[in-house]
Amino acid sequence: MYDRLKGFRDFYPEEMTARREVLDTVEATAGRYGFREVGTPALERTRMYVDKSGEEIVDELYTFEDKGGRDVALTPELTPTVARMVVAKGQELSKPIKWVSTRPFWRYEQVQQGRFREFYQTNVDVFGSAEPEADAEILAFAADALTNLGLSEGEFEFRVSHRDILGGLLESMAGDGGSETDVDIDVRDAIRAVDKSAKVERNEYYDLLHDAGLSYDQAREFDDLLSSQDLDALVEFAGTDRVESAVSNLRRVLDATEDFGVREHCTLSLETARGLDYYTGVVFECFDTTGEVSRAVFGGGRYDDLIESFGGQSTPAVGVALGDATLQLLCERAGAWPDEELATDYYVLTVGDTRDVAARIARDLRSRGHVVETDLSDRGFGSQLSYADTVNAETVVIVGEQDLANGEVTVKEMASGEQTTVPVDEFPGEHDEPRYGDFV
Amino acid sequence: MYDRLKGFRDFYPEEMTARREVLDTVEATAGRYGFREVGTPALERTRMYVDKSGEEIVDELYTFEDKGGRDVALTPELTPTVARMVVAKGQELSKPIKWVSTRPFWRYEQVQQGRFREFYQTNVDVFGSAEPEADAEILAFAADALTNLGLSEGEFEFRVSHRDILGGLLESMAGDGGSETDVDIDVRDAIRAVDKSAKVERNEYYDLLHDAGLSYDQAREFDDLLSSQDLDALVEFAGTDRVESAVSNLRRVLDATEDFGVREHCTLSLETARGLDYYTGVVFECFDTTGEVSRAVFGGGRYDDLIESFGGQSTPAVGVALGDATLQLLCERAGAWPDEELATDYYVLTVGDTRDVAARIARDLRSRGHVVETDLSDRGFGSQLSYADTVNAETVVIVGEQDLANGEVTVKEMASGEQTTVPVDEFPGEHDEPRYGDFV
């Protein structure tokens, strides 16, 4: 009668069990690096995105006017929100600020495999350090998270690039406006073209670069330069301090990844650009090395200017956002997606009027930390046992009127089907985790 | 430069630490009862609420038209969504279905203490059982959650009522239309008046009942009947099977709460009605017994008709929703709100060019499950130590160039300030949790 909206997902318990396990692993990994959880609103003022995130994201915004006449948007990403939060507290926060959170975001996109209108991201950010160690820690966290999820070295790679190498190179190509061969390049558009380069034909890529102001010769030269992955050649070609310093920064980050134990996952890949406008330094994307997951699994990078542009003190920043859908594709491809099975420690089964004793036993088992279900539907033996099986109960405690008359309950191990009677006063008694084997 | 929206909240790490601890306790409690986590969308079709939830909630909806022309709403509550999910899977789901989830909801309300436009709820529901054990388990879960949070018996009470007692009583007052004294009563409006009765003056309450169709004499009589809490008198007054059966159901639920160990938290309170229209049976609200938290902390009840009205098979249901803001007020009042402090197991401090060793030690400690931070900002000894103090590091491992030349690092216990040197090859070595005390 009511349908779910397209691009939105319902997660039933089995699927959610697996998702929760993955999420717990990712968040525990972030926690061990000292990233601290923050909580953030689902709605923000629309203009926060219009100003900073780039037109692509704005086209996809869920925006509306609230009952108070405010132009608001469902948050399409976390970065502007945490930037706002850093600005709001100003100098109160001790640096580096290391934050993590997992929550849904919304974009009105074309729905396809691994892409939904409501998606979940774990965002991990460091604010207040411009040093390469911060970039390296973000990469190390991301690699650790994947490794802890069960992925092996060689199953994923981080393609690492640097926004200011791209920007500096484009600046050099444009010239300083003092020569007749100078051209007018829209750097944002050109970088967006680079971001699309792997997804389009070469000619289309050149057209996009041409639209951004490059001549076709320049577009080919630019493409050759990037695909050479030759940093020295880039520095020489550009001949500017800007490119030299960007290359040096990229090299220092790669050096730091060596010490941080993540260098082996990193590949230099200058065609990696990221779609969002606010990146300033190192950017990277995670890919499935088998290529079976064809798009980037997730990505991140450095955005040193965003907080100042939000009215805060100059605060360098770097982060990564792991999206749920592509991460699931990668895990499934690698056979690392968890089993989707419910777990139940005990089912306490009632036969006849034994609710008081069954409820007491359920309480005692729960107080020992176990997952315990009992009859809520006044059902018979068979259908209770069948339900216990459905929820994968490990042990069934049968509380029957006749057994109780003898002061006993029956403990049944579901895997083997074996069972034995136990004095009701001794169940659970001294046992932290009473099982069939404890009573035979 | 950009401001947060009114009624929305940013949670910084210290506050979030406490919130997460509370949430973990509530969810772990639900988990031990075998409630299974589900994940649900933030947007639904607007008409799902217009049809079923009552006008109050609809006035407060964040609604808009999406880019595909759909009328959508930010979910103001979970119940319609989980009802939709139960209908969608139909007979596939084995009963009883026991679900839990925690997530934000949105209502455009007047912002005040304990009430925000974005708020978080843990929803716990049982679908597929009409038996009193299901109601009792919901109450038992709620009491357990509060007890596990550190509240004591007597610090909170569940005021328990029954919608069909109210409905049946009003039906009896209206008469069957065959007599001149019969009146036309809008039962929904009258029940909403009962829901407001504790918050308004008596005269205003009678006005509301009068607006719903009762005469002023009937309003007073109705009020007297409810406040007497005399179930036998109610049955006698109404003289209908409907009220008799509702009273009998309420008594059976209260009996079940006895076995489920939650009877001592329950008070019969017929003036408790709950605001939402879809309730059909037992309803309850949790109150701070000191009265310091003046409004209901949370509430729940039985809604046996909702799923059928959504086009599903007749599926009785009962649930509770714990809201974050009032729960925090109650916990704070009772001194049970957790300390808001960051915890860090180790800070690995670098002096000079020791990044490779420091990073190796940090990795080794993290792989043992500890929370470990290290320098990301190329800072000196003093400012690193001060940062370690800010994040409450328990142990600082100082990796200095000079110490390293002797093959040693220094282990410093922050609480006492005591420190000792340790061979770098033995740190962490065999130790799962190496501390100062292990090396002296």
Description:
The structure is a homodimer of 440-residue chains. Chain A is α+β, with helices and mostly antiparallel strands and 440 residues long. Chain A folds into two domains: 13-333, BirA Bifunctional Protein, domain 2 (2-Layer Sandwich); 344-439, Rossmann fold (3-Layer(aba) Sandwich), CATH 3.40.50. Chain A contains 16 helices and 16 strands. Chain A has helices at 13-32, 47-52, 55-59, 79-89, 132-148, 163-174, 187-196, 202-211, 216-228, 231-238, 241-259, 306-309, 324-333, 355-367, 381-390, 401-405; strands at residues 36-37, 43-45, 63-65, 71-74, 97-106, 118-127, 156-162, 266-268, 282-288, 298-302, 317-323, 344-351, 372-374, 393-400, 408-413, 419-423. In chain A, a hairpin with a 5-residue loop joins strand 3 (63-65) and strand 4 (71-74). In chain A, helix 1 runs antiparallel to helix 5 and helix 5 packs across helix 11. The first copy, chain A, is elongated, with a radius of gyration of 28 Å. At the A-B interface, helix 1, strand 1, strand 2, helix 4 and strand 5 of A face helix 1, strand 1, strand 2, helix 4 and strand 5 of B. Chains A, B: L-histidine binds at residues 77-79, 107, 121, 125, 274, 278-279. Chains A, B: One of its GO terms (biological process) is histidyl-tRNA aminoacylation.
